[in-house]
Amino acid sequence: MDLDRRSTNLLNEVVLNPGLKSHDLQRKHDLNRRQLKYSFDKINDWLDSKNLPKIGRTRQGTFEISPVLVSTFLKDHAPVQGTIPSEQERVLVILLMLLSREEELSLLHFTCILNFSKNTVLNDLKKAQMNVNRYGLEIRYSRLHGYLLEGKEFSTRQLLIKTINQCLSLTNGKRYLEMAAGLSEGEIDRFRQKIEDVESELGLKFTDDKMESMPYILALTLKRIQQKKTIEPFYVHYDELSDTKEYRATELILNDVGYIPNVERLFITLHLLTTNIYFSENWTEDFIPNLRKALGETLELFEKRSCIFLKNKEQLLNKLMLHMKPAYYRIKYRLTDVHEMHQTVSSEFSELHHITRQAIQPLQDFFGQPIPEHEAMYLSMLFGGWLTKQGDSLQKKIKAVVVCPKGVSISRLMFGQLNELFPEFVFLESLSIREFMTYPLSYDIVFSSVYVETEKKLFIISPLMDEREKYRLRKQVMIETSGFVPTDVQLDQLIQIIGKHASIKNKKALTVELGRFLEPENGSSPGPWPEAETPELSDFLHEGTIQKKRKAESWHDAVQMAADPLLANQSIQPSYIEAIHSLEEQDPYIIIGSGFAIPHADPEKGVHRVAMSLLQLEEGVRYAGNHVIHTIVVIAAPDKYQHLKALRQLVQLAQDKEKALAIRQAKSVSDMASLIETHAAENKTT
């Protein structure tokens, strides 16, 4: 007997996560209790037919999974495979058949391959047409030639690459590719060896998912070339690509396939250039003139806009070069939507992403066009991971690595999510499977989207976790590593219980007080602010941290006066003010609006906690030549994220002429605090 798709998915989930409960599965898969019971009855019948232990239930409502079943399941390194293709899978098979056709395709060809009725296949063909519309292509039928894919060959190649990548992400993807495209395993192995030769030639390592897809892409591309379906000349600069190592590497791939038009060689070269890599021996080489300079300016602007000082900037610059080389060609030749799926930055990264968007202006000037949103998101994730990593103590904290075969975008998303979810840990690297197998550094925990062989604690996770999954994972990991339920998990439960029976006037204050109360219980500090509720501008700037003065004798005196409240509440040491004074005075980047400035320095110079203070001068003080500053906000930011929401709100306030003027004309500190509180409330982020 075979399992249907729903039962297959349910079996995969409970084996990987036996802590799930029935209502979790019902909610996720939109099932009622009867449907769920029916599926598990079918699953147990199937397991029994395979001589495998059945799945039981505990009194707590979780699933009882035999170690024998887990071991059998994980050793296969793949989920249990269903046999009935979904609509998405059928559409991909149809597209693959159209992309690789060597004969006239009739409706009978599709029904025989898919084993579905004519009506179902006709409906699938309509869905396939919707997929190809965005590429300017059309699926057409004629009695003489059967079903054809018509349109520009360059667009067809874009569709080919996207379809192969999508297909390989499916459980049965390889089988569908070989079945629909007529590719033999030996043929794919031959191209895989060629790609490994290219890695050696170029001194780099492609990401696992690209290494998986490239042999299929090359095989089908060459098949189309041999069928005389060659690409038309496109807007590519021959001199720019022909001088690259990738162009020379293309010769390795094509050395035994006969005549290949030059434009096709350029297309394959471009594909190599735009393919993500995990490692390069030559990552410090300036491949593209002035790219390194633009990235350096981006880092400087990021520091100015975020009020965060980056450590080991040269190392970070090298990582940016590694990412931006393929991104350069993707953006320049408008191939970004072909190679990467759009990912959404989590809400926790919204403030960081906002600042990153401002900081990449030098890159946009270099490209001569806007950076696509998802490319900017990857940069935000890279900055976020770097900020979390810098300053962590490797000796005192649990060290973790993240393993993901799905490439840069997904692995960085996982890396960012886990960094935020486990601030107690040091996350060393995001690794491909091949990198993980030879990783030299010591670590304690492995988080992976697939099963990997390791003697350390392994937690298999979804690349995109919802809040419930994050909650369960954090609880499970902390119990296994520390032996207690973490304070923040307890806090979340306590706040929910209190909210059911009482009216909470100030949730943030209650969370802080409860955290302080619970902290001695296990020694795990929840931090001064809940992660999901970073401070507003009004949390920093209030009557206790705002001053209104007539004038200051100099910029030096103005900064000293502005910082007095932070000295008084012991947020900073005098050395921090000295550090601000020692910086270059003619730096216009600290000016964020007409008459607004935000002096700040390296937090290691004497910052105790996140804080801000504001000084309003009736008579402005001169700064950086012709600038007259009336509003000075001193920012102390040892924390990497908690000040970002308030900083964004401050920038919005400074750049709103009416509100900035209202602050300047306010008659009292109380009026200024009220204006700031109103502005913060109007500009909350979710």
Description:
- The structure is a single chain.
- By secondary structure, the chain is α/β, with parallel strands linked by helices.
- Helices cover 55% and strands 10% of the residues.
- It has 31 helices and 15 strands.
- Strand 14 and strand 15 form a beta hairpin.
- Helix 1 packs across helix 3 and helix 24 (487-501) packs across helix 25 (507-522).
- The protein is globular.
Write the layout of secondary structure elements.
Elements: H1 5-16, H2 22-29, H3 33-49, E1 56-57, E2 63-64, H4 67-75, H5 87-100, H6 107-114, H7 118-133, E3 138-142, E4 146-150, H8 153-168, H9 173-181, H10 185-202, E5 204-206, H11 208-226, H12 238-242, H13 245-254, H14 262-273, E6 277-280, H15 291-306, H16 313-332, H17 336-339, H18 350-359, H19 361-367, H20 373-389, E7 399-403, H21 408-421, E8 426-431, H22 433-437, E9 445-448, E10 457-460, H23 467-482, H24 487-501, H25 507-522, H26 537-540, E11 546-549, H27 555-568, H28 574-582, E12 591-593, E13 596-597, E14 611-623, E15 627-636, H29 644-655, H30 657-665, H31 669-682
Parallel strand pairs: 7-8, 7-9, 9-10, 11-14, 13-15
Antiparallel strand pairs: 1-2, 3-4, 5-6, 12-13, 14-15
Helix pairs in contact: 1-3, 5-7, 5-8, 5-9, 8-9, 8-11, 10-11, 10-13, 13-14, 15-16, 15-18, 15-19, 18-20, 20-21, 24-25, 27-28, 30-31
